Amino acid sequence: PEKERTLIVVKPDGVQRRLVGRIVQRFEQRGFKLVGLKLLQVSEDLLAQHYQQLRSKPFYPDLVQYMTSGPVVVMAWEGHQVIQSSRKMVGHTNPAEAQAGTVRGDFSLHVSRNVVHASDSPEGALRELQLWFQGQELLNWDCVDQFITCE
Ligand code: DAT
Ligand code: MG
């Protein structure tokens, strides 16, 4: 098993709708390890870097307004094939196409309010983790509690 890492962001609508706990729970339940977590207000500058390929799209101004409309919860998750698996857990970009059982399929209706972000490739995950986290904010840790089952 590889120690792959990915970036997951609960977008402002997810925070405002109190969905953070349920989203975190899905990743924990699946068996992934939380290695970074913070609440922050995104700057337009960071967003422009994050969505650099989308800057010329007609929906980009609305995307910026949405993503800066309130705090987001930024997470780094680690585990075997976490990038690919988390994309499946998050579901199709357009919630109308997202399957039930996915975060978007269970909690959202429209592409402009799709609750969560997940990196889409190893290169993307590395780039986005470096963009959203300082190196020392990502922790390596092991389960050391002798009274519970560890990995
Ligand atoms: P994903 O978030 O599934 O990786 P993406 O990278 O293509 O999708 O787009 C990033 C975000 O931009 C997406 O989560 C929501 C927004 N977006 C994409 N296509 C859109 C559209 N046609 N209309 C409005 N917003 C859109
Ligand atoms: Mg994307």
UniProtKB/TrEMBL annotation:
Keywords: ATP-binding, Cell cycle, Cell projection, Cytoplasm, Kinase, Magnesium, Metal-binding, Nucleotide metabolism, Nucleotide-binding, Nucleus, Transferase. GO terms for biological process: CTP biosynthetic process; GTP biosynthetic process; UTP biosynthetic process. It is an enzyme of class 2 (transferase). GO terms for molecular function: ATP binding; metal ion binding; nucleoside diphosphate kinase activity. It comes from the Eukaryota. The active site is at H117 (pros-phosphohistidine intermediate). Its cofactor is Mg(2+). The keyword Transmembrane does not apply. Belongs to the NDK family. Major role in the synthesis of nucleoside triphosphates other than ATP. This is Nucleoside diphosphate kinase. It comes from Takifugu bimaculatus. The chain holds residues 49 to 199 of 203 of the full protein.
